[in-house]
## 1
Amino acid sequence: MIRRPPRSTPKPSSAASDVYKRQSLENASIFMPLKKQQIDWDGLGFEALPTRSMWKGECSTGEEWTDGDLVPYGDVNLSPAACVLNYGQGVFEGMKAYHTAKDRIVMFRPDKNSARMQKSTQRICIPTMNDEYFMKAVLSTVKDNIDYIPPYGKGTMYVRPISFGISKAISVQPASKYLFIVFTSPVGSYFKGDAKVLHLFLSDEFHRAAPKGIGNAKAIGNYSASLFPGMQAKSNGYNDMIYVHAKNEQIIEEMGAANLFAVSNGELLTPKLGGSILDGVTRDSVITIAKEILNLKVKEIDIEIERLLKAEEVFCCGTAVEVTCVGKISTKEKEYIIGNGDYGPKTLSIKKHLIQIQKEEIDDPFGWIHPI
Ligand code: PLP
Ligand code: COI
């Protein structure tokens, strides 16, 4: 069982945190990890566990994001008329911090998350923050909660930046005031029961997003759209859903929280971007590893359902799900076993390379690792 930190977590200005801040925030080249928290690292699931502190900043329309500081981890007060509650004006990011084989803490391609945050905020009228502000907030939060990062080999720290409209909106319009929060949680495997091989349900009954909607932004509304189909799939024994394109239901898009890949005739295929698919950081990393390290032919194309179901290998990828094999796909009519129903050689090799780079078990030839 996870031993949770006390509800009244110490203020970030506690003595230990101050010592740490002196060592790391002011002199980033010195890394001196604190003693880890007493947490059952082997029992971690994918849950939001409270940590010491979170970043909290405010910004009004027409202003720059400059405000913000670490505050004790905790609830936020909102007006019932807050724009995010009524009209879903909110976006988020998902990143991870790793305790690596080199006994240091690193993040993976945080610059990509910062860039995507800018695109997402722009799409739903939230003031856009620059890289410097985003990175300061993320790195300060990770550093102040460094003792909650699972030890090497025992999970990761999930980092969740969120921004949303807090001022009142009764008519449909963007808020005039926004919050930006970064919180963290130590996490283990995303799929329940540590599912190693997924069984997904492919259906055109529901769409996750529309081509000219907000599917390519990490907007909270996309995730509301996936809740009912996702729950229905899970209650019928599947791990999750595969969504099809809203305009052409013969081609596949992605899952509710991950991108999809297929190996077909030895080539690596993934749905092309440009519509309602999220431009995943892991997707881009998988494509690069496949091309540059494994010399695979990669195609970003429309993938027909038929082709997916006949693929030699299928896998999904994302920060939370990492690279996870899809062994079976069911439609309303039939169940299809993909390849031999387990990890194929290409999926395994891509997964291994990605994890080994993230955990600094092999060299990072791409400059993706961001040491803290
Ligand atoms: N697609 C969706 C809808 C997601 O929520 C995610 C998760 O962030 C991804 C794809 C994968 O993106 P990333 O690799 O940047 O985590
Ligand atoms: C991520 O992989 O970081 C995501 O944002 C997926 C999430 C909805 C759990």
Note: The CA atoms of residues 241 and 341 lie 17 Å apart.
## 2
Amino acid sequence: MQENLLQITALHKTYSNGAQALSGVDLELKNGMFGLLGPNGAGKSTLMRIIATLQRADSGRACFNGIDIADQPMAVRKALGYLPQEFGVYPRVSAQRLLDYIAVLKGVTNKKERKEQIDYLLDQTNLYAYRKQAVSTFSGGMRQRFGIAQALLGQPRLIIVDEPTAGLDPQERYRFLNLLSEIGEHIIVILSTHIVEDVQELCTQMAIMANGRIVQQGSPRKLCEALKGKLWQKQVSKSELRAFQEQLPILSQRLQAGRLQVRVLSDTAPGHGFVAVEPDLESLYFSAVDV
Ligand code: ADP
């Protein structure tokens, strides 16, 4: 098995309207599933587009297996599978033909090999029956699955998926995440998302991004451990919540079976009937992004 390495050093990017999307991002990724979590506007897509060679940073470096991504984009593209948040235009050619075309672009020149890969991916993404249909006629979920198929063509060594499960129903989501995790054992897969469960279920390593910076990085389990003994929970009524909000550092509140479940992050027991709970990724996420 080949070990792959993506090294990102001091990446900065400010858009012409003044929006500071990346303010010094450092990351080092090896084989495996890497989850990049962050709220909307954190800078995830900008970072993904820079790694996918579609955009340039103002300063800093991104290298894949020693190749500078900005200097040699073509070399990186051959090893890359990219599933963007949205494709602009959906062409009026069949899924099968479009995949064939993309495979050629990715350097799969052997026709038999192309057919094998395409048939396998059409099957894996549940699109085989629709292979002769134009991609422009596909539903949202089918387009998403087509996006997955094209990203996996050419046996990439680095896969970037940006908000991949957004348009999928639960069954499709499960199938897609399974496929990704199978592939992710041997290559680098970056899963950029604001959905905590996607990362929790799949990723061995992760980072949390907020305001253009990496605010936490490590294995989900290790990162959660840091909250051990500091997380407290209680079910409260709406009126109680108002009172607690004034007194306690409330981390999150969510409705569960019609009752409000409130969590507090505190080094010491907050009293008032709050009990200690095991840390989970969602609490870690809330504590890191301060939402
Ligand atoms: P995320 O993917 O985490 O939602 P983005 O990278 O899309 O984050 O956005 C980071 C910041 O950069 C946001 O403030 C966003 O408004 C801004 N931004 C993103 N793309 C552009 C663009 N093409 N032009 C101007 N500002 C942009």
Note: The chain has a mean pLDDT of 90.
